[in-house]
Amino acid sequence: MTDIARAIDHTLLRADASATEIERLCTEAREFHFFSVCVHGSRVELARHLLEDTDVKVASVVGFPLGATDRDTKRFETEAVIDSGAQEIDMVLNLGRLKDGEDNYVLREIRDVVEAADERTVKVILETCLLTREEKIRACHLVRESGAHFVKTSTGFSTGGATLEDVRLLRATVGPKFGVKASGGIRDTATALAMIAAGANRIGTSSGVAILRGAVAAPGGGP
Prior knowledge:
CATH superfamily: Aldolase class I
Strand content: 15-25%
Largest sheet: 8 strands, parallel, barrel
Shape: globular
CATH architecture: Alpha-Beta Barrel
Number of domains: 1
Strand order of the largest sheet: 1-2-3-4-5-6-7-8
């Protein structure tokens, strides 16, 4: 159970999420020892306060969920959430620019965020449901070159989420030591374990509690 918990980014990115819901998210993260909570920038300060004196990190999103903002805006947004206390960044790359073949632009914008993050972990969301196989591979190479730390499948706000096929492809492309985060539609223990077996070493989900309780209920489950 502990191994699964430490792979989970406990996530609440609904536009209408209240402060009370953020408090519940952080309480659950404390109780179940998740790796992090992932919240919007305006909730970072609250989450850091609630998770003070714990080992649960606070992650925030940049360019979310479309990735279409200007790269200077993404850099500024990164700086703003870092100032609020974010310890990890999940950014959405510019999908349109990637599809246009503007690899230098995409590389530069990721590097801008990496630089602004100042050695904090940066995960780059590819939104794999909108990309061809070739585009996914190309994006992975750009992320590795940029100095970021993870490729991530999905925002959870587009036409599809993480698939085992995509996780396997990302892992095969980035190699055994680079970060792969599966996110989008992961709501139960079996799916989470399958994603980890396929190569994910981080899981983004709003269903972390259900996943952990399912792991405990399974034969042989326990702390």
